[in-house]
Every structure is written in structure tokens, then in C-alpha cells.
Amino acid sequence: MPRFFSCLLALIALFFCGAGPALAADSIDAADTGFMIICTGLVLMMTLPGLALFYSGMVRKKHVLAVMAQSAAATALVSILWVAAGYSLAFTGEGAYLGGLTRVMVQGIGLETVSPFAKTIPELLFMAYQMTFAVITCALVGGAVADRMKFSAFLLFCTVWLFVVYVPSTHWVWGGGFLSQMGVIDFAGGIVVHINAGVAGLVAALMLGKRQGYGRDNMAPFDLSLAVIGTGLLWVGWFGFNGGSALSAGSRAVFAILATHLAACAGAVVWTAIEWIERGKPSVLGMISGAVAGLGTITPASGYVLPWHGLVIGALAGGVCYVFCTIIKQRLKYDDSLDVFGVHGVGGLLGTLLAGVFATAALSVSPETPDGVAGLLEGNAAQLGIQAMGVMISVLWCVIGTWGTLKIVDLLCGLRVTPDQEREGLDLALHGEALHQ
């Protein structure tokens, strides 16, 4: 009888989610495995301590520990959820919209098992690498609602949103779902990470409302030196984020890493230059914001472009994201505390579209591929249209999924702290701790 029920459950899973991946005994390459172990550590470092320092340096002193707690909690909680079911639903099965159940609690993964998406490294390593992407995506959203979201609400949000938005989106783009079948390209997470995090952050910021005193009180960053250190850790970690998305220690990873670095440099230079011209002084905050904008924008195209394309994409990111974080944000009067939408959402959207313009180097792996403009004239216009369709579908689902998730969270525990707690500071009010005065 137990055997009968096991077979029945397997048939149900097959019906709804499609067949599991073919686990061919591909050769596990030691160099690729070592490279991907390092990249996994680098991407995890981007959240802890990278993002924790980057965010905490930009809030007021009374909220520093609360922001750090969000990054730490996202790391712990999302990692467990990813191992439990997230990975299986994202990367197994042949369903167009959601994966299968064959890897729940990583069952069926042995020492020699590989994924069809990464055939030269152990599947458990591929699972762990993708886990770090899920972690930082959820952690990024917290920056948009810094200073005012309940810690309990953030935890519940991460739990529900991971399965409602992140996991399906990952399957659509990277797990063989309908967007990848359409031809949408996203090398390292323009849609999956940055658009999802940025759009979710904007929806959350609008639903929670503005911080008390926004536009009136002094909300200057507590310690920008922490944010600079965090930026450095993010910058270096991004080499694992984008370079590791090649899933092997080869030339594609090197091309991605160099394009990533140049995009960060160009983003920092352009943002700084604009600010220097407009305000008379180049701020440290602007410099690091431009670098992160460049990094986020190059992400979807990084392994598909030539290094000099990174300079162009980073420069465009520095200008466009600057406009969104200053002029457009002020005109629309929304309170995205740490500019998650302006940097990551806009950067991810811009980069995903530009991947369709400049992706000639990846569609044909040879470094001698014609430049991006020539590629556009020769047929990349069609790819640009595909990218635009992928962006629209992803944004729409993220808006709906995030709104629904926040409604559920609000119903169960409420979203926002009380006015007294916000004035006191979330460090003391929520965690009973505070930095020394």
C-alpha cells in the first residue's frame, strides 16, 4: 500500500510539473568545481557582509542593526527554504510555468549527480550556487522599506514571495520555462534578481507609505564608510555573481568578469560626473551608487558581450539610474528608502534590454563577433523585441505577486511598525539592541 501511494504522488507531480531532468553521468570537472565553489562563496559574501554593510551605512544610526538583521535573516531563512523546495520547483521538471518535486530536500542527489543545466559540476554545488542568488534577491527588497517594516513581516514576506515570485521567475528564465523557450536571455539575473527585487521594492515602498518625516527631517546616512566597504565587497562578489554564471572556469567567465568590472567603473564615473556638474561636488554616495548601478545593469548581458560593451552599458546605467534616483523619484514622491528600484529595478530593466542590443558576442561565442550596433542591424532587433516582452511579463507578474504577498502578510501580522517604534528606532524597538551613543 505505501508503494501504491508513492507511485500515485509521483504521477501527480509528473502531471502538474512535468518530468524530472535526465541525470546523465556527465564527467564532473575538478577545475569547474573548484571555480564554482569560490563563486558560491563570493555571492554569499555579497549578502553577508556586503549588502548588510552597504545598506546599514545609508540609514540612520537607530536603524543600523535592524537593516543588518534583515540581511542575516534572509540568508538563514531563504537558504533553508531553497533546499527544502525552492531549488526543485525552479530547476527540475519540464513544466512551462513551474518545475517539479523530484529534488525536494535535495533527495536523489548523489556524489556523481549533475544537473542538465550544469553538467561539469556536482548538482549539489549548482543548487548551492543558485541558493545564494535567491538569498540576495530577497535581502535586496528590504532596502526599499528600511526604517519602517516589521521584522516579522519581512520574514513572512521572504517566505511567501520566494515561492510566489522568485521561484517561478527563475524557472521561466533559467529552468527551461516559457521565457527561455521564447528566447529571452538573462546571463546572471537582470530579470530574475534585479527586476524582481527592484519592482518588489517599489511595490512594497508604495504599500507601506513614506517614512515619518520624509522630506522634512534630516535622514542623512549614519556612516558612509560602511557603505563604501559594502560596495567593495559587492563589487568583488559580483565577479562570482556574473563570472560564475558561466558555470565553468573558461573564457566566457573571464569575458563576463571583465565586462562587469568595466561597467562598474563606467557607472561610477558617469554618476560622479553628472553630480559634480549639477551640484558642484562629487559625493561618495553618488560614486558608490553609480558603481552598483553599473554592476546591476551589466548583469543580464555580462557573458554575452565584449568587454568594451561593459563600458557602454555601465555609462548608460550611471546616467539613467541617476535620473531615476533623483529627478523622477522626487517628482513621483515615493519613498524607496535606499533606491532599490532606482538602482536595481531600473538597472535590471535597462540591462535586460541592452542584452538584446549587444548580445552578439554570446550568440556566437567567438571574440571576433561584430559589434553590438552591427548585430542590431543584422537581426538583434528581433532579440530586443523578445527581451522587451520578457521584461513586460516579468514586471507584471512581480507587481501582482508582490502585491498579493504583502496583502497576505498585512492580514497575518501587519506590515509596518508603530509611529512610536519608528521614532524610537527599529534597533531598540524590534531587537532590543542599539549601537553605543
What can you see in these coordinates?
Helix 4 (123-141) crosses helix 5 and helix 12 (340-358) runs antiparallel to helix 14. The chain is mainly alpha-helical. The chain has one domain: Ammonium transporter AmtB like domains (Ammonium transporter fold). The chain is globular and about 60 Å long. Mean pLDDT is 91; it is low at 1-25 and 361-379. 70% of the residues lie in helices and 0% in strands.
What attributes characterize this protein structure?
disordered N terminus; mainly alpha; single chain; Ammonium transporter fold; 437 residues
List the helices and strands and how they pair.
Layout: H1 2-17, H2 30-56, H3 64-91, H4 123-141, H5 151-174, H6 178-182, H7 190-208, H8 224-243, H9 251-279, H10 284-298, H11 307-332, H12 340-358, H13 360-363, H14 372-413, H15 419-424, H16 426-431
Q: Estimate what percentage of residues fall within beta strands.
A: under 5%
Structural class: mainly alpha
Tell me the count of domains.
1
Helix content: 55-70%
The poorly predicted ranges are: 1-25, 361-379
Terminal-residue CA separation: 66 Å
- Going by CATH, the homologous superfamily would be Ammonium transporter AmtB like domains
Largest sheet: none
In the CATH scheme, the class would be Mainly Alpha
Enumerate how many helices there are, as a single number: 16
Instruction: Write the CATH architecture name.
Output: Orthogonal Bundle
According to CATH, the fold-level topology is Ammonium transporter fold
- Radius of gyration computed on alpha carbons: 21 Å
Mean of all residue-level pLDDT scores:
91
Q: What's the helix-strand series?
A: HHHHHHHHHHHHHHHH
Question: What overall geometry do the principal axes of the alpha carbons give?
Answer: globular
Question: Strand tally, please?
Answer: 0
